[in-house]
Design brief:
7 helices; seven-stranded mixed sheet; alpha/beta; binds S-adenosylmethionine; 248 residues
């Protein structure tokens, strides 16, 4: 099944998908530490967490002294990020909006986009619009760190059907691979009975050459690549594709 053009408008709801699962929350401090090591920002520097979701990384960045703006389309996740900030007694500026329509101008020392929060649009020009918005939002010489699933890995290890057992439900996945990316249909089956719910999302698959070309077209110069948050070198079998780029 193919994703609708506007699938991201109703996919990101806790009742269906929660990016702040216990495992994801547990990984956030080490991921944030790796990111900050690469960005080398002074205390008080302005950082934009683009598609911050429930704020698990944004909160870590703020705890380490950065002035953090979290930006996301999902009102529900932003509310959670605000609650997390309150609980941890840190300050986060949280804004709701679409990543294709960033209006910041030379405001940030760095921008991050994490956990495959990029590549959602069926039209490549929308990805490019997003990257151009990132470039505009950065101060001259500012840095952009992007973390997506490695397209080379997805193509190499492609499986059209998978399933996982979660705490209170089973998650079934059916995937259609196209020249551009994957259309993934997730079906959530509650363990204690109740209705199965399905949603289909799209991820444009970026490998190193494709991502480099897109970044350059937006005025961002790729500097370094990694295959994981422990600083592993990027290989075709790496699950993650992490790139550090600089405003040209
Ligand atoms: C996979 S989640 C990752 C969230 C967060 N970065 C993390 O690691 O926990 C993707 C995020 O992108 C956001 N998102 C999806 N489409 C968006 C859009 N068009 N503009 C802004 N945010 C969007 C979702 O609401 C969600 O919070």
């Amino acid at each position: 099944m193919r994703a609708r053009r506007d699938w991201h408008g109703d996919f990101f709801k806790n009742s269906f998908y929660n990016p702040a699962s216990p495992a994801a929350l547990a990984h956030a401090p080490a991921e944030a530490a790796f990111i900050l090591k690469q960005l080398k920002l002074k205390k008080g520097s302005a950082l934009l967490d683009l598609c911050c979701g429930p704020g698990r990384h944004a909160a870590e960045f703020a705890r380490r002294g950065l002035a953090v703006t979290g930006y996301d389309l999902s009102a529900e996740y932003l509310k959670e990020a605000a609650a997390l900030a309150k609980k941890r007694r840190i300050s986060l500026r949280l804004l709701r909006g679409d990543m294709r329509r960033l209006e910041f101008l030379g405001e940030f020392d760095a921008v991050v986009n994490l956990f495959t929060s990029f590549g959602y649009f069926l039209n490549f020009n929308d990805d490019l619009r997003t990257l151009k918005g990132v470039a505009r939002a950065l101060k001259p010489g500012g840095l952009f760190l992007l973390d997506v699933i490695n397209g080379a890995y997805v193509r190499k290890s492609f499986r059209s059907r998978e399933w996982w057992e979660m705490e209170d439900h089973f998650l079934l996945e059916a995937v259609e691979l196209t020249a551009d990316g994957t259309h993934n249909t997730w079906t959530r089956l509650p363990k204690r009975g109740g209705r199965a719910v399905s949603r289909t999302f799209f991820t444009r698959l970026y490998d190193r050459p494709r991502l480099s070309a897109a970044l350059k077209a937006a005025g961002l110069r790729p500097l370094r690549f990694w295959g994981g948050f422990r600083g592993e070198p990027l290989k075709s079998g790496s699950v993650r594709l992490i790139c550090l780029a600089q405003k040209a």
